[in-house]
């Protein structure tokens, strides 16, 4: 059994060889039109999955049995660690997480082979070839710079334990979902490059690429929501989004994936926006790679960065430059060949979706600029002279007077809130009307008319919220208006899909609508709910900071909290103090909260475990801190209104994606068989 | 050492941020202090405001800021006082001056550019004859097919 690590290492190298084969043979075959060569892609993709799967299993085994002769097991595990975190510790470190990335990459490759039965042979061969080229880059990265199977000459007695912050279910499953999203976008990329090589983008291409984008986007949504939820309960002050570079790294591909799956609709339905959609697919994956670069290189070090190695950073940068640069070059050469077929007027669903794309893409650009800005300023201003091909030249930024000394700036939440929020407000405003505009040639009046009652209702809700709150910002009521407007708009949209007639007939038709309609409804509602919840939580949060003695009772909003006891606790790999707090609502006891302060001695880290009482309308969130000199404990109490709605809305968005996906699968996979019996099987939306 | 540094400044604070003994008695002044410290960066952490940070220096900054406010400084004066000592680096919201103007203009410029390109393209395209309209021949053939 000791050999199993070496076997895992060996299968990884073997998989890399299959990757090279899958990259070269199908691409050459597709170019020359040799069917035999094209067919190599499919088995190679499956073999790669099996080999990398075995390799990953071998690494997991090493973690499970705590094999401390392995470098990364020592650095990230401990024999006392609970089994769940021994397993999730596999990807709680740089090397293992890259192996997980690769595993998902080959998984998508195999899926493309399994579900791509309806693709033209040459397109499928090219997709698999391009996908394999991405795999090869990451095989090289792992084997050359980040080998998880490295042994130690003298194994220590026990490990150094996993960062205790990562020993948490929310964060344990956050990376796999994020990676499914990041890596899922590699499929969109492969389809885009394959289409450019093929020289053909048509409605069918739009239909094939959409499920992959949809899947990637929904995994990203879940991953981001999990990370945000984790930050909320684990970091100890209930923040849910920090505009941290690492968060931005996952948010940028999410924004572009959202844009891409909307523009692919236009390609599919109207054969328009082809070049733009291809460009988006390349950029979306580019941002995935950029995200990997940011996280892995530590170039913009932040709360999350746990790898800091320039060699690795440069390697990923080279991968990024090769795929994005190569993709864009190919795009520049071939984009002209993609002529739009469907024309549309200035007022149409197409235009609404273009507006959606402009807003999403520009908001992504804003996040991008804000994220790299400190780096730009630092690189631009550090030296007045630059070394250039051996000699020294004047720093052009100094010449034009932009800098006169080295500078460092920070770009944080206040900037992003100010620069990014307007885009989502604008998106929310146009969404309900844009979603019901007619394809090709619409009239604004006709689309807006059914939305008038929704708008009136939304404004009335906002006015009510404004009247109920006292002396606070307008942010809460604006959030209410936008949320009700988007959710109400989504309801009106799906109601309009039942056309007209008696209410009973329309209700019946509602149940028979294609799943894509329900997916759209669910996802758009989810977005409305999240927009509302973010505004509501930010505007209406209440906070109390105090030194509490045992027996003290204090009021926060309609709740009262009493510190009844503080005990010591001991876990498998930590010890700490636990407060017992009784919560009262309007004077009636509603339960107890047990916030903890832990210390993980092996990792030498303290953590806070907040006590949270989840409620539909508000969370009560208590944190216990250090004992004070004069007796008592530092205690913070928060009321977090509508906190759960943020993640609830996100999960609805992901669920909407899932519902659309099931529709699509029926249509794509079973489409060929069904088309014969049901000639009008393709729904309009 | 790295873990220790991280432990000291960012990751899991035993009790995040503002301590009870720092809070000012005057709620209005305290509210201003909280607002301002939300926009000030902890000098030794990455991307955390002094309001959230548990680092010792953040505590010093919070106390210093409150001292200035109690002394009667306006928000701008108090911020300037800290920036003079710690540099622009501590402002999480970069000032709109010098090179940072580009950062602030990035969003509007890009929006105008992208919106303009999209508008011109759509405008130009919608004027062209619709190629998916059927020619007379095709229409006749279609009619024939439809009639069976």
From TrEMBL, chain B:
<comment type="similarity">
    <text>Belongs to the CcmH/CycL/Ccl2/NrfF family.</text>
</comment>
<feature type="transmembrane region" description="Helical">
    <location>
        <begin position="101"/>
        <end position="122"/>
    </location>
</feature>
<feature type="region of interest" description="Disordered">
    <location>
        <begin position="128"/>
        <end position="148"/>
    </location>
</feature>
<keyword id="KW-0812">Transmembrane</keyword>
<dbReference type="InterPro" id="IPR038297">
    <property type="entry name" value="CcmH/CycL/NrfF/Ccl2_sf"/>
</dbReference>
<dbReference type="InterPro" id="IPR051263">
    <property type="entry name" value="C-type_cytochrome_biogenesis"/>
</dbReference>
<dbReference type="InterPro" id="IPR005616">
    <property type="entry name" value="CcmH/CycL/Ccl2/NrfF_N"/>
</dbReference>
<dbReference type="Pfam" id="PF03918">
    <property type="entry name" value="CcmH"/>
</dbReference>
<protein>
    <recommendedName>
        <fullName>Cytochrome c-type biogenesis protein</fullName>
    </recommendedName>
</protein>
<keyword id="KW-0408">Iron</keyword>
<keyword id="KW-0479">Metal-binding</keyword>
<keyword id="KW-0472">Membrane</keyword>
<keyword id="KW-0349">Heme</keyword>
<comment type="function">
    <text>Possible subunit of a heme lyase.</text>
</comment>
<keyword id="KW-1133">Transmembrane helix</keyword>
<feature type="domain" description="CcmH/CycL/Ccl2/NrfF N-terminal">
    <location>
        <begin position="6"/>
        <end position="146"/>
    </location>
</feature>
<keyword id="KW-0732">Signal</keyword>
